[in-house]
Structure formats: structure tokens, C-alpha cells
Write a structure and sequence with these properties.
With 296 residues, the protein is mostly helical. Helix content is 76%, strand content 5%. The longest helix has 34 residues.
Length: 296
Amino acid sequence: MVTTYLKGIKKNWLIGVIPPAFVVLFIPIIAAIWPELEAQADAFAAILENEIYKVMLGDLAEGMFTSWQGIIIMYIFVWIDFIMIFITIFMPVRLLSSEVDKRTLDVTLSYPIPRWRYLLEKYSVYVTYQILYPILVGSILIVFTEFMGEEIDPGAVFLALSGVTLKFFALGSLTFLCAVIFLKTNRAMAAAAGVVLGSYIGERIGMLVASAVETTTFDIKIFDLQIIQCHFNIGEFVASLSIFHYLTAGNIQRWVTGTWEALFNNLVPELIIVVGTGLAALVLALYIFENRELAY
């Protein structure tokens, strides 16, 4: 029933398990150096006022050295972002392009299952391994938090890790679409790298520009009746085109500490953008693969 999926899980277990396990290893390392970091928190916080660090770390640079939860979120989610760049470029593309390169795709598609289902089972392998991030990182973090006698907000951490998984899904869907369009590894990987790296760099540059230029405010009127007041910043607009801009750990931590209304009003639109982008890209990939002539 799910032969393609099970084969993919078995074949790709190494690249699926190692990245989240690598992130988990940072938790005991941070726990070991946390007492020293805590003593130097003010000095590190002053360093992070530098605009270059703010661009490199994004919203994670704002006051994250003052608590155990803050330092965990800063270090862990910075590393997850870097891993996300590599994994979303490489893994979804290779799930399909490896079959093309080995010229085994025709044989595989001769099985009595629809093309879209074969492709969906392939992509489900990728999604399955990305779910390990909230499971492994969250559970180990809780254990070490208890061991250290520190405190964390489980809701904030769970939402932040869930946001990571959803961004893996959205970016992976976009690069999987690249694989379906270009098929061969070199072209598909180049397109995927352009999408992911362009998204990451664009978000960082956009936020740097946003901090340097003023926001323009203007009114939308009909017959001198003000309908809505709009605020536009070219840097924020550029950053908003990137998946990396949404569901960030730093933003989620701030939203959780506010009111339920603020959490809902900020979280839901970003969920819709990230999940909607991922679903749209995946559905388009399934449609193209189901209907195209596979000449390679």
C-alpha cells in the first residue's frame, strides 16, 4: 500500500536522522557552558546591539542572553536555520532526481499506482524526518531543563519547533517542485539552491534595509473618506517575500508572552502564508508530474 514510502524511509534514514540529532547535541553543550554565559549576559547583550549581528541572527538577536530559554532559542534555532538551508536544497530534490539519474524512474512508474501517489509517498519521506525536530529537540530540551533546574515556556518552545517543521515543509515543497520541473539533479539542485538561498539572503538584506530606511505612511481614501491607513517599508516588503521571515522563534516567544489576541492575530496569518505556500507548491508538483511527458 505504501511501498514507495517505506522504501524511502529505509533508504534515507541517515540523512533524515543525523541533522536533528546534530541539533540535539548542542543542548548538553549549551547546558555545560550556560553558567559562564549567564555571568557574561550583559556583555554579550551589548555586543548583539551591533547591526551586523542583528542581520546575521535576525529577531533572535534581541535580548536572548538573559535567560536559559533565550539562550537555547538563540543557539538552537540559528543552527536549525543553517541546517534548513542545506536539507531543503538537497533532500527533496534527491528523492526524485536520483531515480532520474539512475534511469529507474520508468520502471518505478510501471507499478500499478498513480503518478501523483508515487510522488506524494516520496515527499512524505522528507516530511516524516522533519517531524523529528519538535520530537527530539523538544523532549531532550525538557530533560536538560529539569536537570539544570531552569525554566522554559513549553508552549513557546513547542510553537517555535512546530514553526520550524512547517517552514521545512514549505521550502521543501518549493524545491520538490524544482525537482519535478527540471528532473535531472544538476539543474534541479541549482534551481532549488536559487530558491532557498535567495529566500534566506533576501530576508536578511530586507531586514537590514528595513532598519535603515523610514517607513512610509499613507491613507487610502474614497471621496475624501479614509478607508485604511497603510505603512510601507521597502525592506520589510522584500523580507516578507521569504519563508524564513515567518514563524520565527524570536517572534513566537514575544507573541506568547503577550495576550491571546496578539498571539492569534500574529500567528494565524503567518501559518496561513507558510502552510498555503507549501500546499500550493506541492499540489502544483503533483499536477505537473501526473500530466507531463517524462522525456529525460
